[in-house]
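Preliminary data (for renewal application), MRU complex.
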Amino acid sequence: MSNIQASLSKTKQEMESVGITDNIRLSDDGNSIVIIDQTRLPGTLEYKNITNLEGAYQAIKKLEVRGAPAIGIFAGYTMYVLSRKDSSLDFDAFYRNFTANREYLNSSRPTAVNLSWALKRMDQVVCDNRDRPVEKIVQLLKEEAIRIHNEDIEMCLKICEYGLSLLKDGDGVLTHCNAGPLATSYGTAQGPFLLAKARGMNIRVFADETRPLLQGARLTAFELQRAGVNVTLICDNMASLVMRNGWINACFVGCDRIAANGDFANKIGTSGVAILAKHYGIPVYSLGPTSTIDMNCPDGDHIRIELRDPDEIRTMWYAQPMAPEDVKCYNPSFDVTDHELLSGIVTEKGIVYPPFDVNLKKLFDEE
Ligand code: MRU
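Predicted structure:
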């Protein structure tokens, strides 16, 4: 084992000692994808088997599985599970079904690039092997889905190490939404807090509740508290006060799509956090794998922002009204943070600093 592999395997053990790391997996018989239904958390930790296309589409749409990298991993396994059912077809019929399934799944959510990125990888496997028996192609699809998952684990471990290198014992960090192991394989923006805990460090995390669907309260607070991390939950409109109090040394947030100039989409409210942080002179880091960087997207204006059901604002999570019925609502699921507000992008290949247009390009040119 190389030194790098040995050190990654140590990081992996440390993360497993504190975090949930079985949020998505292929069932033993290969007929379904087993996920933690994130809509039931924090009250109920329930595993759910997804067996068909509509179930997979709805699982993404309804946020049973969510978080950019997790959606990508899930999409890879879904394409394998669906292809398996078609393994006795001839290639043309197989590829017709494969394409229809892929396109439908890809339409489930638009903002996170990892979904289309993973689906493209699965498609490439089919196209590159079209002269081989369909059964063999299905086997290769399984291997690719597992590869996508394993690569994400490795990327997360490296991101956790790079992210933690930006912090020192006792630091306060503000985070928004959920980018821990539930949203990925081992965690991006919140992964370093878990790693710090495993290493006996005290990082004081302030977690925005993240309206409207409370991913910060339901998922981040759950994951971090369960791991014994020093986490304090705040409402989104309290971020300015905790920064002003001098409690925050850095902001760590995830990303759903990073454009070539460094603008990035993340959960609605992220840009507000970054604007506040600039006012108080606090650095903001976006943490995510290179699979979240979309070099074909020039800037944030070209990122499609998902608009979600107004009832997410009008009705409470537990289905109690919290606004007048039928009040007009505007409910964008993500916003774009201007690259000028960003101090660095933490990827598995290292920390990218401004100028982002030059340095992101270098990251891919070096491959
Ligand atoms: O709507 P969600 O819950 O899928 O939004 C998730 C986020 O915005 C995360 O911060 C992002 O996907 C990064 S997850 C590692």
